[in-house]
What does this fold into?
Amino acid sequence: MPPKPFAGVDLGGTNIQIGIISPDLRLLSEAKRKTKAEEKLEGVLGRILAGVEEACEAAGIAVSDLGGLGIGAPGAVDPDRGVVLEAVNLRWDDVPLADLLTKRMRVKSYLDNDVNVAVYGENKLGNGKNAKNLLGVWLGTGIGGGLILNGSLYYGHFWTAGEIGHTILFPNLPRGIRSLENNCSRTSIVDRLVRLIQANQKTKITAEVGDDLGKIKSRTLARHYREGEREDKLVVEVIDEAAVLLGQSIGSIVTLLSLPRVVLGGGLTEALGPAFVERVEKVVRDVAFPDACKKVDVVESTLEDTAGVFGAAMIAMERAGQGYKVKDR
It folds into this structure.
C-alpha cells in the first residue's frame, strides 16, 4: 500500500493552523481557524474538524484518504494516552483529545504538546536542523518550550519537560504575575502596555488603535518596535524588559543542559523579528556559564507558523509506522 498524506494540526490559544503533509514532506494545502476557547471543548473540536475538512478538500482528497492526524495542543500532555493533562489557555483538564478526534473523524489521531511538535519540525526541517541538543521557545498567547536531547524529543517523567513558561521569576509575587509566561508572553506585554497607557504614559500606539486597546496585537507591537519613525520609546522599553527576563531564563537552561542552540518561534517572535531575537541572544550569552556556553546560538524559526503543522504530521507518521522522507529544502 502506498504511503498516505497526514494532517498536521497546531492548536494554539488563539489560532488553529492545519496542513495536509505528503509522505515526502510537501505542504499540500492549509486551513486556519480561530481557536475561540470561550466556546469550550465542543466548539474547539468542531473548528478543528471543519478546518481539517477544508484542508483536505483543498488538497483534492477526502478525510478518509488520510493516513492519520497529528495534533499539537498547548499545555501539559500525555502523548502515550493522547490526553491533554492541563491546558491553561483553553481551560482544559484531562481531555482525551486524540480519542475524541479519532472517533469523530474516523482517522487515527496522535497527540503531542504544541511547542514539542513545532520544535520537532524545526529540528528536522528548519533552523534547528541536525542539532542533536536543542531548546525551542515559542512566544504567543502564552509561552511554551520543547527540548531535543540526544537527537530525540525529551518529555521527562511527568511529560512536562520544556515547559519554560511556568518558570517562576518572582516567587514573592501573587500567582498570575510571577512566572515567565505572566511577564513575557504577548498577552502579558499587551496587558502591561495597557496598564501604562491607562496610567497616562505616552505611546504612539494610541494614535493607531484609539480607545480600543484590545486591538493591540503582535503586528501592532512590531510596527512600533525599533522600526524607524515608528519606533516607540514605551513599546521598546516594555518589550526589551521582557527580552531580558526571557534571556535570563533561557541562559540558565543553556547552562543547566549545556545546549548549543536555541530556536525562538511563535507569533510574537515572528512579528518582532531579528532585533528582538538579537536582544534575547545577548542576554542569554551574558547569563550562560562558563565561557564555553556563551557560544550558544539563538536563532529564529524559519518554518514560522508551519513548524507545528509539519512537526505534528511527522510525529504522527512515525507513530503510525509509516515514516517520511526528509528531502533537502
Observations:
- The first strand starts at residue 6 and ends at 11.
- The domain at 130-301 is CATH 3.30.420.40 (Nucleotidyltransferase; domain 5).
- Residues 126 and 276 are 19 Å apart (CA to CA).
